[in-house]
Amino acid sequence: MILLxxxxxxxxxxxxxxxxxxxxxxxxxxxxxxxGGFAITTASGQxxxxxxxxxxxxxxxxxxxxxxxxxxxxxxxDNR
Length: 80
Description:
By secondary structure, the protein is an alpha+beta fold. It has 2 helices and 2 strands; from the N terminus they run H-H-E-E. The two termini are 18 Å apart.
């Protein structure tokens, strides 16, 4: 399982673009699960819900990070 959290979607997606270009072997997976779902209404009024794995619920995790603090859109040499 790979937990990838990057938060620059509003700023040009430079974080994920960097990961794809420089760390693909670390994030390559058979499939990915996004955090949300989506629904659309057809012309006939039928609702179609795209698949989502779970509702957003509190989940406790312990995250240990090493290296110099920085921003996901500007990775540093010592925290890749």
